[in-house]
Design a protein that fits this description.
Layout lengths: L1 H18 L18 H7 L15 E4 L4 H14 L6 E4 L5 H5 L7 E3 L5 E3 L4 H9 L3
Length: 135
């Protein structure tokens, strides 16, 4: 009986890990999933806050440190951060309650103050256009 419980528990963990990173993207039809290097993942979870993160930002950025699309999205946010764009960090990997609280179906997801969502990886121009609406 213990073996069945252990097997089901492991199956649940694997299913949850796979569902926590959404690879959907309207522009990703011909894209392959990026691979995060150890240094990118480690850098994403460091205590130093990137310049594009601000707790006062109007748009919330939902991500997980282990989602490869989130790592790629952070690279775009870093570029936009140099132009003054900011997002409020919402790490669903550290706070599982955010999934239900904000009805997050996958990461990366951005939510504007009016509830408008941008789900999936966004290229720089598309992300800039979304953020410009909520400056």
């Amino acid at each position: 009986m213990k073996k069945i419980g252990l097997f089901l528990g492991l199956l649940f963990v694997l299913a949850f890990a796979g569902a926590s990173c959404n690879n959907s993207n309207e522009n990703s039809n011909n894209q392959t999933e990026p691979t995060a290097t150890e240094s990118q993942v480690a850098g994403a979870s460091s205590t130093e806050k990137p310049e594009y993160f601000s707790d006062d930002a109007k748009v919330m950025f939902f991500y997980s440190d282990y989602c490869s699309w989130c790592v790629k999205q952070k690279e775009v946010l870093a570029e936009l951060g140099k132009e003054g764009y900011r997002v409020k960090p919402m790490n669903v990997g550290e706070n599982q309650d955010l999934w239900k609280q904000y009805n997050i179906e996958g990461t990366p997801t951005l939510i504007a103050p009016d509830g408008t969502k941008s789900t999936g990886y966004a290229e720089k121009d598309r992300l800039r256009t979304f953020l410009d609406k909520y400056k």
